Amino acid sequence: MLSPLIVLELAALGIGAGFLAGLLGIGGGMVMVPFITIIMTEVGVDPGLAVKMAIATSMATIMFTSISSVRAHHKRGAVRWDIVRRLAPGIIGGALVASMGVFALLKGAWLAVLFAVFVAFSATQMFLDRKPPPSRQMPGTAGQLGAGGTIGFMSGLVGAGGGFISVPFMAWCNVPIHNAVATSAALGFPIAVANVVGYVIAGNAATGLPPASFGYIWLPALAVIALCSVMTAPLGAKAAHALPVTRLKRIFASILYALAAYMLWKGLSGR
Fold it and tell me: Which residues, at least 6 apart from 76, have a Cβ–Cβ distance to it below 8 Å?
């Protein structure tokens, strides 16, 4: 049984992550992974395993937050379903390769450092807000298949819904930021489903897992966070369409920088 304090911490995390999922199209994983890592360490899980389980559990919650978030964006006509259809096949393939193979082989400390590097890169891209040439467009079907594979693979390694890559990528291709955020939210579901399958299969061979684990997924955290996040994701989506583009990008970047710094410290210190 979880203590009331742990339940409250998970509920607060779910509320915050759900709002950010709707606001920024990031699935909430960029926020959840560091905090789930802290909470799992509090309940006695080995730090290296805690990072892996935080990544897997974060991804599992995205299955729920993405549905809630994308419904709100779809009602506003902001989702580019044509992009979703072209990116999704590559995303599923890349996610399965990462979650079933590479993820299980890497140590938790290396995953934490990898998480920090890619989050910081995404934050920089957003913060600089460089304007792409007006003629640049989304690549063709083959190019989007490859881009989807990269998004799915990296998401599988760091437990994020892919927004940390897909939003900057689409903005670089002149997709308006509000459409990029909404489309990234829609991409979160296939990313999450493919990765969760891999995490469950790979985690069956892991040792030292806490009670109520399903592969690398910690079910108590999944239940509490998912329940709370689905209620606040629509509020975040509503806020996203009310904020100016530049401010939305700066919010995105500031949050990512802070989380990247924490995970880099955790990976390098081995805590």
Answer: 182, 237, 241
Specify the amino acid at residue 113.
V
d(CA 259, CA 37): 12
Tens digit of each residue's pLDDT (9 = 90 or more) over 165-193: 788 788 888 888 888 888 988 888 888 89
251 is written with which tokens?
């919010």
Predicted model pTM: 0.76
- Alpha-helical regions (H) of the chain: 4-24, 29-42, 47-75, 81-97, 103-105, 108-128, 141-158, 163-172, 177-203, 219-242, 245-269
In one-letter notation, the amino acid at residue 163 is: G
Domain ranges of the chain: 4-269
- Cα separation, 201 vs 263, whole angstroms: 26
pLDDT in tens, 1-32: 678 899 999 999 889 888 877 776 565 666 78
* Cα-based distances in Å from 102 to 92, 111, 121, 150: 15, 10, 21, 14
